[in-house]
Amino acid sequence: SLCRFSIKYSYASRGDTSSISTEVLSRSQQIVNMTNESFGTCDVDFSFWGSSELIKQYRRLPNFSLDLKFQEALSRGERYIVLSTLDDYYSFVIDDNNKLRRYLFDSNVRDYMGLNRVNEDIKTTLEKDDLSDFWWLNNGITILSTNARIIGNCIQMDDIQIVNGLQTTESIFNYLVSGNNDERKRLVLVKIIVSKEKEIRDSIIRATNNQTNVELA
Fold first, then answer.
1. Which residues pair with 12 in a beta bridge?
2. CA-to-CA distance for 127 and 122, rounded, in angstroms?
3. Parallel, antiparallel, or unpaired: how do β-strands 5-12 and 66-69 relate?
4. Residue 35 CB neighbour total at 10 angstroms
5. Backbone phi and psi for residue 118, each to the nearest 5 degrees, phi listed first
6. What is the pTM of this model?
7. Cβ atoms 119, 171 nearer than 8 A
8. Quick one: which of 157, 149, 159, 144 has its CA closest to 195?
9. DSSP structural state of residue 105
10. Which of 162, 150, 149 has its CA nearest to residue 62?
11. What are phi and psi of 128, to 5 degrees?
C-alpha cells in the first residue's frame, strides 16, 4: 500500500534566486503548509529556479556511455548475455543523485504502469526469502548499444537504450532505493545487442515490446 508520497513545486523564472523577495518566500511556505494540511503524510518540497539554474540544467548532458559490472558473460561477435548482481545493475541505472536514469528508456514504448499484476509479481520475487535466484524467475533486460567491449568483469557500452525491461528495472530500483539489502547477491540477466543500423534497431525495439498489447505506432 502507498504509505507516503512526495509533492514537488517548482517556480521557474528568469530572475535571480539569490534575491527572492520575502513576500514570494512567504507565499511558497504558504503553499507548503496548505499541501501538508490537505494531504497529511506527504513530503513537500518547493524549489526556485532562476536563469542560472535553468541554464545549468539545460547544459547538463545525459550520459549514454556507461559501464556495467557482471559476474558471468557469454558473447558471440557483438552480442552479449551477462549476469549482473541486482546491486551492480542498480548502480548502472542511477545517476549521481541516486535517481533513475529515465532517459535510457526513451526507446521503451511502455512506461512503468504502477503495481499491476506483472510488477506485483516482480516485487514479490524480490521480497521472497527463498533459495531461488532472481534471474530464474524473470525475463531480464534488453539493451541496444552502438558499441560494447568487455574489460575484466565489466562491459562498457555507448549510446545505451534499454528497450525492454523497464518494469524489471523500476522494480529493482524501488526495492533497493528503499533501503533493502540483497545479501544473497542475486543476479539479473542482461542481453546486449550492438548495432548502428536503424532498421535493425527498430525491429529489435518492435520485437521486444510485442509481448502485450501496445499500439503499433
1. 49
2. 9
3. unpaired
4. 17
5. -65, -45
6. 0.70
7. yes
8. 144
9. G
10. 162
11. -65, 135
